[in-house]
Structure formats: C-alpha cells, structure tokens
Amino acid sequence: MDFDTSILNLDAKVIFFPVRHHSPACARFVRELATKIRPAAILIEGPADFNDQISELNLPHQLPIAVYSYAHFSDNTRLAAFYPYCVYSPEWQALQIAKELDIPAEFIDLPWSKMATTKTAHHRYSDRELRQSQYVSQLCETLGIEGLDHLWDHLFEIDPALTLETYLDRAHQFCFHCRALDEPTLEDQQREAFMTEKIRQAIARYGGQILVVTGGFHSYALHTQLLNPPTEPQASLVFSYLEQCLKPAIVQQGIALTPFSYDRLDSLTGYDAGMPNPGFYHQVWQHRYQSSAQEDTYTHNAIYREVFAQIVTALRSHQQLISAADLIAVESAAHALAALRGHAEIWRQDIIDAIVTSLIKEEVIITHPLLRAVHEVFRGSERGKLAAGISVPPLVQEIKQQLKQHNLEPQPIGRIVQLNLLEEPACSKLLHQLRILQIAGFNRTGGIDLAARQDLSIQWEEWSIAWSPAYEGSCIEAAIYGSTLLEAAEMRLLELAKQCEQQSESAALLLLDACLMGVQTLIPPLYQQLLTLIQSDSDFFAVTSTLTHLLYLYSYDELLGIAEHAEIGYLLQVTFTRSLWLLESLGQVRDQDQQLLNAVKTLLGTLQRCDRTLNLNRAAFIAVLTRTSQEQTQNPVLRGATIGALWVLDEAPTEQVLTDLSAISNHLGDFLTGLFSIAREMIQRSPELLNQIDQIIAQFDDEAFLEALPSLRLAFTYFTPREQHMLSQTLTQFWTKPSAPILEISPEQIAQIKAREARLLSTIAQYGLRGIRE
C-alpha cells in the first residue's frame, strides 16, 4: 500500500494532525496549525463520555492533571484508566487553542468502559503501538539509535528549526510505515471505527474545516476510513460487538478529573509508558516554545544550560560537590556528543552521557548519586492541583462531609488526634475506612494495635492527620469502589480478599480490618473464606500467625463490637487444632528459631486464655508437646520450648526438665533459648535448675565452652538485667565460698602506719606534686 499524500493537504475538509502524546514539538505545531487554519472545531483523542464535562478542563488547574475513568462490572471486576495532561501535551494545547480561538473542542475516542479489560493499557496516552512497531526497530538499527524515545527526539524534538510542513510530512510518513508493518489490534479497530463516526458527525454539525488531533498510529487509518468507508461491516468488528455482548455488564461507572504528578507519569514502564523524563520536556516547552512565544526569541542551548544548572543544584543539595573544572569537562563532552550524533542542540542523552563519562570513575549503576540527581531533575517535581468548580464523585463529597462532621479534616499543619475507642468508636471506624482505601494524609501512629499487638493494655488510638498533595486524588480514585464510604470500604476489602488465595494470615488480617471499620456485613463471608483457607493451609507458621490474630480478635471482641459473633470462637478452635496437627508433622526446621518460639507461645497463650470458654482439646495439646519434646532429632530450640510449655502448664515436673537438660548438653544453649523463652518466670523460681545449668557448663572444656557461648548469650537475653542479677544471686547460694583470712594487726602498728602516711603526704604537698589527694 502506497502512502496517500492527500493527507498532507491543509485545504482539505478534515485535517489530521498526528501526535505522540506528551510531545512538546507536537504541542507547538498543533497550536501553530490551529492558529493558521482556524478550524470550525477541534476533535481530540480522548474519552467521549467526558464531553459533558469538557468545560471543566478550561478552569485554572495547576498541571499535570488527568481524566480518570473507572468501571465496576457484574463479575466484581474493577478497572480504571488515566488520560494525563501536562502543559506540553498536544491534547492539552489543542484544548487551550480552541478556547483562545473560541471554537468547540470535543473528545472522540471510545469510552474506557466500552473497551476495559485486564489486558487493556491503563495509561491511555501510552506509546504501546509505537513501542511494539517493527518499523521503529528497523529504523533504530539503520540510524544507530537506541529505542523509540531517542529516535523520536532525533526526528522531531531536537531541531528547533523544524517547520510545521516538515513535521506533518515526516510524522505522517513515520506513522504510516509503523502501521504498515504491524497489524492493528481489535481494540484499535474498535476505537478507530468509533472515532471515524464521530468525525462524520462533526462534519455534518460544523460548516468549516475540522482539525483532528489523534495519536499518529491512528491518523492514516482514520483518513482512509473517512475517504473510503467500508461497504460492509468488518468481520473483526462484528466479532468485537459479539464479544462486548458477552462481557459482564457494567454495574457502575464514572469519570472525573484527578490531580496527577510528573513522578507518577515518569514511573510508568513497559508498554504503558509514554514520553519519559517529564521534567526535561517541561523545560523544553518553557524555554523553546513558551518563552519564544512571549519574547519572540530563543537562545541556542538554553535548555541545556537551565537543566544542567538544576542538576548542579540537586547534586549540591545531596552533598555531592562539583567543581568548575568538572562543569567545563561535562560541557565540553556534551557539545562533542551532540555534534557526533548530529544533534542541533545538546539534548537529554547527551547530558547524561557527558556526566557519566566525565564525572563517574567507578562502576555506573542507576543508584549512583550523580545519576540520581540527573534523574531527579529529568523527572521533575510538578504536582497537579484541581481548580474549584469541578464535579466530583459522590464518594469524595461523603468523605469530606464525614471528616467535617467528626472534626477530622486534614489541614496544611499536621496534628495528632487521640481517640478513646469506648467514647469515639465512630471516629475510629471512619479513619480505618480511609486507611483501607489508602486515602493520603491519615496514618495510625500509636495506641492499641491489634494487628501488630502493641500497647494492648490501653483503649485508645493515635492518628496523624495532615493535608497531603495526594489527598484529593486518592479520594477521587477511591470512587472506583463505590459511591458511599461504607460501600467503598466493603468493596476494597472484598477485592483484597480475592488476593488471599492460600494466605490464611492475610485473610485473618482482613477480618480484623472489617471489625475495625465496623463493616459487620462482611464478617460472615470473610469468616467462611478464612475457615476454608485454614483447613487447607499446610504452612505451620502461617496458621499459627493466623491463630495469633484470631486470639486477639476473640479477646477484644467487646472493644471491636463483635461479641455476638460466636463464629470467631469456632475459627479459633479450628485453627488451634490445625496448628497442633501441623506441629507434629513439622519435621526438622532450621534457621527459623524465632518463628518456632512465637508459634509455641501462641499455642500456649491460646490454651491459657481460652481453654475454659472454648473447651479446647488440652489433652491433645499436652500429647503433641510431649512427643515433640522427646523427639531426639528435633530442633533443640523447639524441644526446649515444648518442655517449657509443659512445665508452665504443670504437666511436666521440674525433675523431668532437669533430666531433659542433662540429656541435651551438646546443644545446651539452643535448648535453653527455647526453655527461657517460654518458661522465663518458672526458671526464676527454680534454683535447682539454675544449679544444674551451672554444673553442666562447668564441665565444658575450653573448646566446648567457646562453641556454646553464643547460644548461651542469646538464651540469657530473655531475662532483663535485673532478672539476670537475681539469677546470679540465687546461684551463689550453691557455691562453697572460702572464709576470708583474719587480719591480725596491733594498735601500735596502726599508729606507726598512720604517722608514716602523714609524713608522706606532707612531703608531697611541700614539693607541689599534683594529682595526689589526701
């Protein structure tokens, strides 16, 4: 197929302007073209379902911002997409020039909800088609250029003298060949059919020329379909229609503006990525196009000088000093590299390579301070802020209303809020709902924490509340989960529950979150899921961790408002029984001593707290501990812990502990680690055991003692310094101390010694010797 040059005709009824999203050159030329031809309307690649709100984009926002589209399907799938706009985005400049020329602007792309799948790119202004193109790969190889980003810079961005006509010819040809070597996806065909119909409607509605601003990959296809409409439906589109009919129905959808940031834009990778380094291209726009439009002048290499000055400032802020000689070396290298590559100006990669070659003497790694400073400047720090007057999802309105009602609104100056859980349960539940929705600016910093099991003796929580730049955006983006706060929190929990495929501990934490948020309706389904996971989980450590969470859920049921849920107790019984079975079939475990000790502590604590109320199988617990403690090949730490648990429960006499201690002298330190961890208080009340330990250690030769010393040190760390002192005092009772000799000296001898001492001190004072005190 040959290239049709009629697409370059600027007198045509419809003029197609091909863009690469977030390209400063494209943004400049779309303004120039619109000013030149003054079209009747500008049609832009963007979500058509936002047209009712498109006037909101004319408000005085602080860029970058994004159109956020989201959908909830009947199979409980939730998908969302962003259409981000920077000041140098061609779509944004098309909107601005339309406003300046007082002409209508419309979005013409297929709404996100109509094409949303898990495989669809969630960044709608990405370069997926160009990055996958065979033509781009071949052209890069021919020109000796690495990748699409450098190729695009080389062809379209670097030369400030590039004209509109040259750009249109080059961009259309470039995108035509990308399209020729690659089959368009079904999604592309759907979108192009929709956009073509929108263009036809605009032709019928407006009298003059129509300017169509779309990704370059689509421009030629739209031009062809407009000139030569298909006589019959394409088979692929018929299939697509049938596929749409079979898709889950949309339960809820929405679209709104949300703040964005250069950091977020630069973090996109793979086929979701667009133009990289937004901070650099922001400087390009400011110095090359914005300043030249205002002053009608442009200084050669002004971009490089400004960017390099920012890099030096960033380096110095990180205590990385750079000398004048270094600056001269970098500038010389940058000029040489730009000339070698045929660049009209020093560009992005020239700066990076010049710094690497001139300043970095060691291995080049991405975390090098110099490169981090460069990437920090190239990324940029711009963060968007929405203007007043935009429409927001109902969830955002409810969040703000609830925060105002409870006097918890975030302020620029942060504050610490302490909540009494018995007096202010509603505030606690609200903040936990915001936490699970990841609303920025709300962090729990202290008080009772049932998940981490900290400060369990108190009944208050401490929260840090402060306004964050991400606060408004996180509220808007949480709207994908529902229109009310309670509904959104429920749906977010259910989404997280889906991810707990074989993780009983994670499911237990979600059950705890449901209780903290007051989402009572979710307790039964989460309970059933957790029960299934526990019964199938074969990881002893995961199941005992789950048991820990359930134990505290059960113990603090009144505080959490779930005292009427008897199923928590049943879950505890099932988990306890499952843990015993897994303990006995555990086998030898190495390098997980602390996890073993925590597990035995949990089992012991569960029995001690719940034996009477839940009628736990105490006999089975004792039997498992007994068999484990007597297993000769088992980890000495576990053997010590299990015999310690039996001792605490008064199921093993002190004599048995002494016998086991003597039998395992080769691994004394490890055994004592387990024993002391579980039975610390029992040890302090058993001087016989201390004496036995002392006798075993006394029999060690030097080599055996040095080998056992590290584990012995670890074992005794379970006692506080005061307790260690008391143990040593107890131990001295068993030592035979020789009586001290009686010093026999007469009073006369004492008098002589004192007289001699007095003369000595007098002589010292006479000669003025210092440092000697009487």
Shape: extended
Category by helix and strand content: alpha/beta
Low-confidence stretches: none
- Whole-angstrom Rg: 37 Å
* Cross-sheet strand order for the largest sheet: 1-6-2-5
Q: Please give the count of helices.
A: 35
Largest sheet: 4 strands, parallel
Question: Between the first and last Cα atoms, what is the distance in angstroms?
Answer: 111 Å
- The count of domains is 4
Helix content: 55-70%
Indicate the mean pLDDT: 84
| Strand residues, percent | 5-15%
Count of beta strands? 10
Explain the layout of strands and helices.
Elements: E1 14-19, H1 24-37, E2 41-47, E3 65-73, E4 78-85, H2 90-101, E5 105-109, H3 112-115, H4 128-131, H5 134-143, H6 147-157, H7 164-180, H8 186-205, E6 210-215, H9 216-227, H10 235-246, E7 250-259, H11 262-266, H12 278-295, H13 302-317, H14 324-340, H15 348-359, H16 369-379, H17 394-405, E8 415-420, H18 425-436, E9 442-447, E10 460-465, H19 471-477, H20 485-498, H21 504-517, H22 523-536, H23 540-555, H24 557-560, H25 567-584, H26 593-614, H27 618-630, H28 636-648, H29 654-663, H30 668-678, H31 680-684, H32 687-698, H33 702-716, H34 721-731, H35 747-766
Parallel strand pairs: 1-6, 2-5, 2-6
Antiparallel strand pairs: 3-4, 3-7, 8-10, 9-10
Helix pairs in contact: 1-2, 7-9, 8-9, 12-13, 12-16, 13-16, 14-15, 15-16, 20-21, 21-22, 21-23, 22-25, 23-25, 23-26, 25-27, 26-28, 27-28, 28-30, 29-32, 30-33
